[in-house]
Design goal:
By secondary structure, this protein is an all-alpha fold. The protein has 19 helices and two strands.
Length: 454
């Protein structure tokens, strides 16, 4: 009875559904015909399915040349399901078939997809699906019209879904390096990536605000962009601009490259947008400077907004931590952003998430150091630690950028990355909540004491 109650928990269900989708995807990919003689191993099938369902984009085999049309369609389906989120699909199914949801369902979905748990579940989910498909179709049409030779109708749809779902899968062996100087294609992909990374609630709010502006309706005071949406948009814009400037100076000023200034600017901007969420690249990541890799590491670790297709600790977590540090430096008792103070429990959650994410990445990098060269002296593997750390952050934050280490991973290393992608997509808090739901709350409290810090 207790086991049934645990499995029925709204926190455990998304984990179970996610695992089922990955298993089914791995079975389909393993059984699918390939364009190469060598069969896809079960480990590589699970790796690819996990990477697609978790919208990461790390690959052990080239997607465009190794998989047939059926295999690519399976990956496309996994990306779409992972982008919208298993909870979105299951909650929509519950709404359509039952025409009603429990209060538990409403709260569970609300806490993950929105910053506000009080919303109309059915209308919200239907609007998400409709707008997602509409944006992806428009994106695929634009990609096809801009370059019908490189982008067939299926290829255009594949890359449009991959960009909006922040998956980073590409049918080209060099990702998007062949289009690094194409402003039109870069612009479409960046727009799709940003729309998929700001969060569904923010997108719907901005859409409503733009509609009012275009209709020239007077906007009542206090009914514009909300405080939450403003934080997401401003922080995201700041990361894109600062990240782009840092990459520009690290790659095209500090490290001499024979690239036209306008192309260098476009490349830096695209890589800054893609690094936080998507995983497309127009530069060879393995040939970038150490400074650039550190900038990319920072952008990947932050990620996108809550309730979006992106991973990472989220832009809101970064903003809360920055506000908390600034308030401590000023000697204030409250952490403020704009005209509101942040609740203390939110600050604590942000700190725990930051530390927990850093700990998980560190442990994964530590294990990968063992599996990918732990039996060799430092002089033989010099520089590999940065590559391993980069791979770990990319996997946990579901980004998909790689310096080239993915394809050379050992079997044990691949399973470590698989675990990282799974944890990163669900989020550490979901797994902790699932573990906590299996435990009975303590019936007592211990006496408290102070401890000197610092």
């Amino acid at each position: 009875m207790k086991l049934f109650r645990i499995l029925k928990s709204p926190i455990v269900l998304p984990i179970a559904f996610f695992m089922v989708v990955i298993v089914l995807g791995a079975i389909l990919l393993h059984g699918a015909e390939r364009n190469t003689i060598e069969a896809l191993s079960w480990t590589d099938a699970v790796f690819t399915a996990t990477s697609a369902a978790c919208v990461t984009g790390l690959v052990v085999v080239d997607t465009g040349s190794c998989f047939t049309a059926f295999g690519q369609m399976v990956i496309l389906g996994l990306m779409q399901m992972g982008g919208l989120g298993i909870m979105t699909f299951t909650s929509l199914s519950i709404y359509i078939w039952r025409r009603r949801t429990t209060i538990t369902d409403r709260i569970a979905v609300g806490q993950i997809l929105l910053h506000d748990a009080t919303f109309n579940l059915g209308r919200f989910l239907i609007e998400i699906v409709c707008w997602t498909f509409l944006i992806e179709i428009i994106g695929s049409i634009l990609l096809y019209l801009m370059d019908p030779v490189a982008f067939s109708p299926f290829s255009a749809l594949f890359h449009s879904v991959s960009a909006f779902c922040n998956a980073g899968f590409a049918l080209f062996p060099d990702s998007m390096m062949g289009f690094k100087d194409n402003w039109g294609i870069n612009g479409v992909l960046m727009t799709l990536i940003v729309l998929g990374g700001i969060g569904f609630s923010v997108f719907l709010e901005v859409k409503g605000y733009v509609r009012q502006r275009l209709a020239r309706h007077p906007i009542p005071k206090g009914k514009g962009i909300s405080w939450y949406a403003g934080i997401v948009l401003r922080t995201s814009l700041m990361l894109i601009v600062v990240g782009g400037m840092a990459l520009y100076f690290a790659e095209f000023v500090g490290y001499s490259r024979m690239v036209a200034p306008e192309d260098a600017l476009l490349t830096s901007l695209f890589q800054s947008v893609s690094a936080r969420t998507a995983g497309f690249n127009t530069l060879d990541i393995g040939q970038m400077t150490n400074v650039s890799l550190i900038v990319l590491l920072s952008l990947m670790f932050v990620g996108g907004a809550p309730g979006s297709c992106a991973g990472g600790i989220k832009v809101t977590t970064l903003r809360v931590l920055a506000a908390a540090i600034w308030s401590q430096m000023q000697g204030k008792t409250q952490s403020t952003i704009g005209k509101f103070a942040i609740r203390e429990n939110v600050v604590k959650k942000a700190m725990v998430l930051f530390l927990l994410a850093a700990l998980i990445i560190f442990l994964a990098a530590f294990l990968l150091d063992f599996t990918e060269g732990g039996d060799k002296p430092h002089l033989m593997v010099r520089g590999q630690f940065l590559e391993i750390l980069f791979e770990s952050v990319s996997a946990f934050c579901t980004v998909g950028l790689s310096t080239g280490l993915t394809a050379t991973l050992s079997t044990a290393g691949k399973w470590i990355i698989i675990t990282l992608m799974f944890i990163g997509r669900l989020g550490p808090f979901v797994l902790i909540a699932a573990l906590q739901s299996m435990q009975a709350p303590p019936a007592y409290r211990l006496p408290e004491e102070t401890l000197m810090i610092g």
